[in-house]
Amino acid sequence: MSSKMGIAVFFFFILVVKSAASENFTYNGFRSANLILDGIADITSSGVLELTHRAKINQGHGWHPDPMTFKNSNGTVISFSTTFVFAIVSPYPNLTGHGIALVVAPQRGLPGSLPTQYLGLFNESNNGNSTNHVFAVELDTVQGDQFKDINDNHVGIDINSLFSNISASAAYHANVNGVDELKNLTLTSGLAMQLWVDYDGNEKVINVTLAPIKVPKPQKPLLSLKYDLSSVLNESMYVGFSSSTGSVPSSHFVLGWSFSMGGPAPPLSLSMLPGIPRLFPKELPKFVTIGLPILFSFMFVLVISSFYYAMLRKRKYEELLEDWESDYGPHRFKYKDLYIATRGFRDEELLGAGGFGSVYRGVLPDTKMEVAVKRVSHESKQGIREFISEIVSIGRLRHRNLVTLLGYCRRKRELLLVYDFMPNGSLDKHIHNVPGVALNWKQRFHVIKGVASGLLYLHEEWEQVVIHRDIKASNVMLDSEFNGRLGDFGLARLYDHGTDPQTTHIVGTIGYLAPEQYRVGKATTWADVFAFGAFVLEVACGRRPIEPQAQHSDIYLVDRVFSCWKRGNIAEAVDPHLGNDYVAEEMELVLKLGLICSNVEPSMRPSMRQIGQYLKGEAPLPEILSPAAGNALSFEHHVNIALDDDEDDDEEDDSEGLLSDQSTNTSASGTRPSVAESVLSKSLILL
Ligand SMILES: *[C@@H]1O[C@H](CO)[C@@H](O)[C@H](O)[C@H]1NC(C)=O
Ligand SMILES: *[C@@H]1O[C@H](CO)[C@@H](O)[C@H](O)[C@H]1NC(C)=O
Ligand SMILES: *[C@@H]1O[C@H](CO)[C@@H](O)[C@H](O)[C@H]1NC(C)=O
Ligand SMILES: *[C@@H]1O[C@H](CO)[C@@H](O)[C@H](O)[C@H]1NC(C)=O
Ligand SMILES: *[C@@H]1O[C@H](CO)[C@@H](O)[C@H](O)[C@H]1NC(C)=O
Ligand SMILES: *[C@@H]1O[C@H](CO)[C@@H](O)[C@H](O)[C@H]1NC(C)=O
Ligand SMILES: *[C@@H]1O[C@H](CO)[C@@H](O)[C@H](O)[C@H]1NC(C)=O
Ligand SMILES: *[C@@H]1O[C@H](CO)[C@@H](O)[C@H](O)[C@H]1NC(C)=O
Ligand SMILES: *[C@@H]1O[C@H](CO)[C@@H](O)[C@H](O)[C@H]1NC(C)=O
After folding, report:
1. Catalytic annotation, residues
2. How does the protein's chain sit in the membrane according to the entry (predicted)?
3. Strands (E), 355-435
4. Is the domain covering 21-272 a CATH 2.60.120.200 domain?
5. pLDDT in tens, 450-460
6. What is the distance in A from the centroid of ligand 3 to the CA of 93?
7. Whose CB among 69, 149, 471, 511 lies 3.0–4.6 Å from 143's, allowing a Cys bridge?
């Protein structure tokens, strides 16, 4: 019996303890709270109850997990008191929605509730129905005409309905020097505020009080409604919060909450509450708010200017590249590389300027290889294709006595040819206009043999016959070991291609041009041999083929050598700079070879193969036949015409180079205008 009593007492005790323990609660932050959430509600890691956060047209609820007993045994609602700290934050100023409500409801949820103006409390069909048994205090930030809201910033008491039984604009009564003063508040200010809801079960009065955070609870409530909740509330009820958003993804936060049944709500310890979460993860440091805009505008300027620079650059380094050139890819150089190599084609890098253009020394940026870059201006689009194909095929020529053409680049009105760099420059610089003996006979003879070997390769040993067209001392380059290397071959063709066949261009240099070229205008290997003869005499005699200042009989080198030979003293023609410092047999061989090559009759000239044999002493030199004299005469006849325009035959200064449509009719023999004259007067290219 006593044990039964004991068990009953025990259960009673448990009930009381449980009841007492669950009817009062205080949450200073919700980290350790066991709230029941629904909708989009969440609790942040810092313990903030986020009823809504960055979500449009949505709702969220948070409930204290345990039910509360709101009624006495005689069915009247007990006094209760609750307070909470909240904040409403919107990403846009003055634009928010819709609000928060403290809710007392029969269930841990509000079935069928809608977001937006329904605040997550009701829907259109159950709004205002007394079977709801819902008591709420709303903090409404949108004026809904549908529910006769007073404004978009109000506090209201809602009983089963969104039509507030009483409401007031958000404000609080402040006691200023004993005088009551109503101070407006803006619910959507983003600042934390505190709300108290007190129900006096004896007086049947509901008081609602609002204040900014850290302002003590005002004496006078904002709302006070005499209303008996007994008909509204059931015995067992749940307390919680509801919130909804509309078209603006506002955030509705609750930072702390306390509740007491039968007495005033325990005060919140404000210092323990979590902070209001930022809409952006972290407060941006000054670097971001001030530094970054500056940085960005700086970068913007940088991007714009570099874009502009790139445009300029593009124009600066612009090249012409057509589809057909894709086959020649390996032979193409980038203009930019050549520009950098020659340091922007600076004057200091200028090696020389000839008829076809200027030659610059350069160091290729990638390989650090020394090159010579020849800048040739060309206007005509015609023939450039054939020429490039020829250039590329010429680029495949490899011989120790040829200057290697490494490749090309093409721009508007400009062609750039890239050659191996020849450290010792061109041969003519070592023969003409130099004090003392720049080049001794041994070296000169070596160069002559080298050039002959290179020319033999072009004429007979390569897969196709290549006619050089412009053999002369200034086109013979000297490498580091003073080997003679023929350069510039084929270049003359550029001006030959695509031109009107009616006006035949003669390509080459006066003094080296074979007489038949004036008539036929066609380049042949024999013409090359003729030019080689002139070159050989030039090297041996140390003077150019034509020297206008000389005595009349001496103007033409070939005439002079011929007459010396006739007189039986060919050595008289030898370069005086050499003195006696030469091998007489070799000298005689070279001079006679020069005369033989200068034969007027092309077929009488030896081939390059024969010339090679003579120079090596493998075959005896043929006799110099009488036509050599005639040769000299006709040579004089042909060449005299152009003398006035070519008095100073110094190619390095001849930047013009192209003589076109100039009447140069000052023939020395002058009596009969020959075919040669008329052709010559049409157009003539000098190098
Ligand atoms: C609940 O709070 C009220 C008022 O703060 C107090 O009178 C009452 O004793 C509390 N109950 C318990 C069980 O702590
Ligand atoms: C109901 O009971 C409480 C005590 O439990 C008492 O204070 C109150 O006056 C009663 N109300 C009525 C209407 O009897
Ligand atoms: C926002 O509200 C403030 C006062 O609450 C007002 O001064 C301001 O003009 C409003 N701005 C807009 C864009 O409505
Ligand atoms: C409104 O909510 C009630 C429950 O409270 C539900 O039965 C009803 O279907 C809902 N009506 C609409 C229109 O959602
Ligand atoms: C209120 O709701 C109940 C059930 O939820 C329903 O039967 C009743 O018709 C509703 N009353 C009104 C006025 O809509
Ligand atoms: C107050 O609430 C009650 C109960 O829902 C309702 O009948 C009444 O019309 C409301 N009063 C006002 C002024 O809205
Ligand atoms: C406070 O707000 C109300 C309602 O918006 C307004 O009528 C009143 O002028 C405001 N008072 C002050 C001091 O701003
Ligand atoms: C409600 O407010 C009135 C003053 O408006 C006050 O007299 C009363 O004590 C308050 N009741 C509660 C429960 O706070
Ligand atoms: C609340 O009480 C009413 C009667 O007062 C009852 O009809 C209703 O079912 C109760 N609601 C709940 C959820 O218990």
Report:
1. 470
2. Single-pass type I membrane protein
3. 357-363, 370-377, 405-411, 414-420
4. yes
5. 999 999 998 88
6. 8
7. 149
